[in-house]
């Protein structure tokens, strides 16, 4: 039986990934003020944010397991957040065009009652195709770039922007699912039941 699990994020992409993984969870977004965190070191930045989000909700629900996460895009030493307008989206996509960048997701899992706390960062290398001005304008006008770090969604229309990735695909979407599931299994938060396994004899011949 799975223990109670909380996703401390309002991101529909993280919610989708965990549902696809078959997890039973509730969404209770953290409301911490992100403006107080320094991004001088991008890896520390996403790790601290993820840990703070998980801690914020874990204190309120000490018997539950809480997942916190934060994702950034890093290119040429510069952190790209979510574009606030079309101008910023245009600038970000132009900067990424034809270049390799990194997607970093900090993720944290904790349970106050069991005194368990873990936090790590997963990095994925992403290469963009060369984008024409017309492609950039078309993509901006789909409205997909907004509310996305780096102004694109690899799982959406933005899939055509990406020529190659090296590393976790789900990390680019917003959560390194493999690493999260590994942690939850290791700490027996979820189990691997064989009750619903498929019988090969049921396959059509």
Judging from the principal axes of the Cα atoms, what is the shape?
elongated
Can you tell me the CATH class? Alpha Beta
| Count of DSSP-assigned helices | 6
- Given the helix and strand composition, which structural class is it? alpha/beta
Q: How far apart are the termini?
A: 35 Å
Q: Report the portion of residues in β strands.
A: 15-25%
* Mean pLDDT across every amino acid position: 91
Ranges with pLDDT <50 over ≥5 residues?
A: none
The SSE order reads EHEHEEHEEHEHH
- Counting DSSP E segments of at least 2 residues, the number of strands comes to 7
Classify the helix fraction into a percent range: 25-40%
Salient structural properties:
single chain, 205 residues, alpha/beta, Maf protein, seven-stranded mixed beta sheet, 7 strands, 30% helix
What does this protein structure show overall?
The protein is 30% helix and 24% strand. The longest helix has 19 residues, at 42-60. Strands 1, 2, 3, 4, 5, 6 and 7 form a 7-stranded mixed β-sheet that branches. The chain has helices at residues 12-20, 42-60, 86-96, 133-140, 169-173, 177-186, and strands at 5-7, 26-27, 65-75, 78-80, 100-111, 116-128, 162-166. The chain starts with a strand and ends in a 19-residue tail after the last helix. The chain has one domain (5-192): Maf protein, CATH 3.90.950.10.
